[in-house]
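Milestone M4 deliverable, item 7.
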Amino acid sequence: MNRSLRVRALLALAVIAVSLYVAVTVPVRLGLDLRGGTQIVIETRSTPTADADREATDRTLEVLRGRIDALGVAEPTLVRSGENRIIVELPGVQDPEKAQDVLGRTAQLTFHPVLGTADGAGDGADETSRALPEQPRDRVLPDESGTPLRLGAAALTGEHVEEAAARFDQQGGAGWHVTVGFEGAGRDGWARLTGEAACHPAGAPARRVAIVLDDKVISSPQVDPSVACRTGIRDGATRITGSFGPDEARELSLLINGGALPVPVETVEQRTVGPTLGAQAITASAWAAVIGTALTSLFIIVVYRLMGVLATVALLCYGLVSYAALAALGATLTLPGLAGFVLAIGMAVDANVLVFERAREEYAARRRPSTRSALAAGFRNALTAIADSNITTLIAAALLFLLASGPVRGFGVTLGIGVLASMFSALVITRVLAEFAANRTPVRRRPRLTGIASTGAVRDRLTRRDPQLMRRPRRWLAASAAVLVLAGSGIALRGVDLGVEFTGGRLIEYATSAPVDPDRARTALADAGHPRAVVQSSGDTGLTVRAESLTDAEEAEVTDTVRDLAGGAEKVRDELIGPSLGEELRRGALIALAVALGAQLVYLAARFRWVFGTAAVVALAHDVVILLGVFAWLGKPVDGVFLAALLTVIGYSVNDSVVLFDRVRELARRSPGAALSGIANRAILQTLPRTVNTGMGAAFILTALAVLGGSSLTDFALALLVGLVVGTYSSVFTAAPVAIRLHDRVSRRRSHRPG
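Output delivered:
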């Protein structure tokens, strides 16, 4: 065993050992759909008009969403209920009382000049100081030690704060504190406030600045003697000190960063709610995932024999590493997330398939081939394709995490972890296992056992027929345009059926005379014509039904169904609810997605050429429109589950195009003067075995999820199956023809330039 192989083996063992330890010792949070959680109902104080009530409630909802994200609670649900109520559902919260306290605080942060103490002590100004301007003197609040302070009008508010952070000062002795940085006018305002305070002698009450949170002085520090009168602190920063522990400091920084609530709020209810999915649906989905993964593994073993067995072992290690990373980061797993996680195992096959197919090419091309040298060349030649496809995906994941919020941000985290774990699995674990096996004497004597010594059925057929697929690229573009017109007409004629997450709907809560099994209620409501209704247990004998907008007749039908099941039920709440994916969250997600696509285009243009980057983005847009059109024609809902599937399809589409264009770039370097259409045709034929085998690996899992996963996963798996087929088609018959046409157009323009 050579040195590099030993280093990779030790690294692989270390990562697997740590992942196994984390997976065993760190529990994974389950989402509201799998385990339920805590429901908190918050009510905003009334404003003069109903429109103002609704606007204040919507603004409050966005502030609360930011606070929940900062609390580290992933995959929460927040919806507006009626005009002035917000329903917050938190999965797996360890301390619901703390969550309630953080959500319910108004967090009005203000900075005040201190005019003196309430016992009559003056400001102690000397002859050189300038008197404070006339300010209200009727506000008295006790400081940290209980001494009453007379405060002037607020000079700054939390809106002037750029960022707050909890810090620990071990050397200076301040302990835990919160640093506060001001922005814009806040920097000048802070300089004026501290400059006025600096005009008073050291120790005087008026040399202090009071920092007030919700009518409580949390800190009132003296301005340092080094600060000059009327000059102030001009770096736009301060820190809030006090008897803070780490939790208090982090909570204070969370409240400051999240911003103040526009109106005071009150917690009116807190209860435990059950999962939105039933035990039967969860069990069916788990079995579908197991069967799908087994079928994918069996397919890889049949195609690549010994290397397939080793790739299956590496994929299991990939699953372990990804799971441990999600657990260590405290991510919340939902059913779509679990299905996406299983799908990622199928997609992680891609890197292994890329390596094995390149190894097959090297083995067939050599006069005196050996499995070991062919594998080494396969890893070396596949590296650029693996790197480029994964870097483009990592760019998208990072930007989704930085710019989006809610479930889209969570998807970015899961996507990034999956990509990094996939690269480690293929380039380290698979390589260690493959090189170790290739060095064994029985394997060297029987190279066909490895699966590398044969070129494969797909490549053999392509070699015999040698089809010229890119001889007339316009025909493929015309076919793609026809499919786009068909999909677009579905969107235009039938419209997109947005789910309750986007449109809101109706929430009905019942107090039942006896406990009702939510699974039975879901089945009964589905039989009554409401298959999309979300049913949860609420408290001990309560039941909530959440659905799209219901007519009075439909509401009566739902109520009768519940009463029949429970033997009696009283309706205790019937309210219209807003969307859980609100306007601001949707806008942030669209901005993040647009920036991510733009960044991918720039990267592809830099790594390849702008022609290829543009073609990849065109193919991606083609896939998105067709997927939306298929769902429009089928009348399927476009909801949060569909959003997760759509983001997955986008990543798959870009990945496929990058693999093809990487081969085009390689062939173009070997034949500088050749026509791009011929190069693209050769690249398609050479990468088609990889495309087919990767697609088949993912298709086994998706088919199992669609057929066996129950109604909760049918639409999710259907969206991904459509995306898989369309993405495979578009990378070959849309991206390549677009690149050829753009290249030809640029070449003609250059040839017509004078001189």
